Amino acid sequence: MKYVESALLPGERIVCGGHPCFWAMGPRITLSLLLMVWGVLIGTMGTSPLAAVGFFVAGLGLFGASLLAWWTTEFAVTNKRVVAKFGALRRHTVELTLAKIESVRVEQSLIGRIFDYGSLVIGSGGLIATPIPGIANPHEFRRMVFLAQVAEERVPLRLVA
């Protein structure tokens, strides 16, 4: 949570930290492993060593990209906003204040329901809905967003004279 911790404002604290679900990257990891196995099989047959190296390197690159995406994805609910960061080389950040969040929708596939992962789609006043994909335990994360909103509403306003 390096980015999230560095983006905290004075008086802000993390209420709930989320992480991407490794199962959400299952298809990419499966494809990368199949490419590597295919490269090894072609290499052991000896028919085309260049193709074998190509398949293995492609699978290794896809596997590395999947791990990099998993390691560089951070998101959290603080007592004032929702903060998310995706990507290492091309960084995409989302920072929404709790007061402007109007809806939080969970989207899950059948496999997502089985392995308890999905995407959160956060709707805020007049802006395009912001998706946060591949979250582990998305219903709990959505609940924490609503609890943080309720807690923020209870804080009394201080009037400065």
What keywords describe this structure?
PH-domain like, three-stranded antiparallel β-sheet, alpha+beta, disordered C terminus, 27% strand, 161 residues, elongated, 5 helices, 2 domains, four-stranded antiparallel β-sheet
CATH class of the largest domain: Mainly Beta
Question: How many H/I helices?
Answer: 5
CATH architecture type of the largest domain: Roll
Main-sheet strand order equals 1-2-3-4
Task: Tell me the number of structural domains.
Answer: 2
Strand content: 25-35%
Radius of gyration: 21 Å
In which range does the helix fraction lie?
40-55%
Kindly report how far apart the N and C termini lie: 38 Å
Q: Which structural category fits the helices and strands? A: alpha+beta
Number of strands: 7
- Report the uncertain regions: 157-161
Mean pLDDT: 85
CATH topology of the largest domain: PH-domain like
Shape: elongated
Topology (elements, then pairings):
Layout: H1 2-6, E1 14-18, H2 26-45, H3 49-71, E2 74-78, E3 81-86, E4 92-97, E5 101-107, H4 110-115, E6 117-124, E7 130-136, H5 138-154
Helix pairs in contact: 2-3
What does this 3D model show about the protein?
The protein is of the alpha+beta class and 161 residues long. The chain has two domains: 43 residues; 74 residues, PH-domain like. The protein is built from five helices and seven strands. The chain has a four-stranded antiparallel β-sheet. A three-stranded antiparallel β-sheet has the order 5-6-7. A hairpin with a 5-residue loop joins strand 6 and strand 7. Helix 2 packs antiparallel against helix 3. It starts with a helix and ends in a 7-residue tail after the last helix.
